[in-house]
């Protein structure tokens, strides 16, 4: 577990590489999709944190050129707060889920993810479970080896071009991709790196942040780029507050083997 390669961020607590033992568990083959989340909402009437707050954060590159100016994030101005952005309207008013039923649900907080898991009789994975599943028995930087795009073949949904101004979509996607895009890893799990960050059940603590106020997220997203965020690796990690909702943050469930969820 962890990463000591040139790609690693020591301040995130990735290093040192260490051995961790996990009990038997099951991991969903895919991130929870919009269709999956929609079934939960239809059954329960659930309203997400973003819907209750009335806004969420959207990557500016996915907004129309004439989109009105909105509040940005000081340290990351490519994130824009968009009124009415939610899982139903990923880029705010005027956007919809048409053609994206099989894309991962986004704009969901950890609270929202846990509510879906409780409804489904499942749970969020621990960080070590998540990383074990993502590695699929490999000790390389990525599950498929030590090159991000071996032979020029893109094996995950990440950002190509000049971040944040131009995503050339050489991998076929700008923004989210279907949950079954790209080849699965050796355990038969799709998009464990790239596409969307995924919530875990663990508190984020690192050499640079010992507050314990954030939750570990894993996997990177379609916004990860070598010049900005090299966290699209199993050994990488970051943290978000449990009420955070973003256009590149979703989840996949896990279950305990031989016991309750």
Structure notes:
- The protein has helices spanning 34-44, 49-53, 110-120, 127-135; strands at 25-27, 55-59, 72-73, 76-83, 161-162, 166-167, 197-206, 209-218, 238-240, 249-250, 254-256.
- By secondary structure, the chain is of the alpha+beta class.
- It has one domain (10-256): paralog of FGE (formylglycine-generating enzyme).
- The strands form 4 sheets. The protein has a 4-stranded mixed sheet.
- It starts with 24 loop residues before the first strand and ends in a 5-residue tail after the last strand.
- The mean pLDDT is 95.
How would you sum up this structure in a few lines?
The chain has 261 residues and is α+β, with helices and mostly antiparallel strands. Helices cover 14% and strands 19% of the residues.
Main β-sheet, spatial strand arrangement: 9-8-7-10
Main pleated sheet: 4 strands, mixed
Which class in CATH terms?
A: Alpha Beta
The CATH topology, please?
Answer: paralog of FGE (formylglycine-generating enzyme)
Helix content: 10-25%
What is the fold's blueprint, element by element?
Blueprint: E1 25-27, H1 34-44, H2 49-53, E2 55-59, E3 72-73, E4 76-83, H3 110-120, H4 127-135, E5 161-162, E6 166-167, E7 197-206, E8 209-218, E9 238-240, E10 249-250, E11 254-256
């Amino acid at each position: 577990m962890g990463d000591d390669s040139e790609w690693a961020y020591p301040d995130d607590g990735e290093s040192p590489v260490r051995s961790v033992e996990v009990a038997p568990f099951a991991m969903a083959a895919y991130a929870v999709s919009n269709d999956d989340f929609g079934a939960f909402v239809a059954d329960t009437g659930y309203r997400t944190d973003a819907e209750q707050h009335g806004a969420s954060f959207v990557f500016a590159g996915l907004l129309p050129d004439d989109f009105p100016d909105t509040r940005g994030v000081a340290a990351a101005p490519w994130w824009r707060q968009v009124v009415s952005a939610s899982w139903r309207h990923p880029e705010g008013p005027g956007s919809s889920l048409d053609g994206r039923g099989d894309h991962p649900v986004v704009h969901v907080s950890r609270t929202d993810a846990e509510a879906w898991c409780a409804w489904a009789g499942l749970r969020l994975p621990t960080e070590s479970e998540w990383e074990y599943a993502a590695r699929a028995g490999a000790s390389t930087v990525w599950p498929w080896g030590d090159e991000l795009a071996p032979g020029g073949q893109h094996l995950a949904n990440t950002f190509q071009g000049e971040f944040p101004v131009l995503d050339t979509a050489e991998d076929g996607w700008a923004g989210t991709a279907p949950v079954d895009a790209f080849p699965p890893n050796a355990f038969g799990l799709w998009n464990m790196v790239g596409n969307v960050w995924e919530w875990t059940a663990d508190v984020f603590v690192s050499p640079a942040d010992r507050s314990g106020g954030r939750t570990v997220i894993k996997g990177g997203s379609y916004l990860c780029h070598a010049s900005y965020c090299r966290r699209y690796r199993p050994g990488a990690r970051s943290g978000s507050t449990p009420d955070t909702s973003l256009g590149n943050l979703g989840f996949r469930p896990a279950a305990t083997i031989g016991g309750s969820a």
